[in-house]
Amino acid sequence: MLTISYVVPQIAILSSLLCTVTVWAQTRPIMFQDCGSEGSRVSQVRITPCSSDPCVFVRGTKLHAEVDFLTTRASPTADINATITIFYPMAVPILPANACVGGGGLSCPLAANTLYTFTGHAQVLRSPPPLYLPVPMIARMYGDNNSTVIFCIKFNLETR
């Protein structure tokens, strides 16, 4: 016979494991294209939640992105912006916009020939209609006080 004191910890361990597996299954490297990186080579882009290619985002939810890149030159600054193009480019607010301050995972100045991981978050807006066809998103990190494109990545996404 199982007692409550034995069953409750087992359920907690199982629940914790299930949550970890669920989050891991929704994080995946995505397919992307380089669209003009001048100061680095991007090796991998990971987005959560993303369980398909292209990623399908639910409007009103928060997404988490990580970009691994190897710098080819030094930069005193690193600022990020993104756009999604439906009929015309629309800004996508990615936080932090200053990748060196506020949780972007970077410490400026960026050194040449160094591997970095930028970590950003964005809120998937409710305002655009659901997009059942892939649309392009472009994310750029600017350096040297916005005079150089450290990296530029392009990937497709859908919203529901």
UniProtKB/TrEMBL annotation:
A GO term for molecular function: sterol binding
UniProt subcellular location: Secreted
Primary location group: secreted
Signal peptide: 1-25
Domain MD-2-related lipid-recognition: 32-157
SMART domains: ML
Keyword set includes Signal: yes
Keywords (A to Z) from UniProt: Secreted, Signal
GO (cellular component) term, any one: extracellular region
Claim: Hydrolase is one of the keywords in the record: no
BP GO annotations: sterol transport
Family statement: Belongs to the NPC2 family.
Protein name: MD-2-related lipid-recognition domain-containing protein
Species assigned in the record: Hypsibius exemplaris (Freshwater tardigrade)
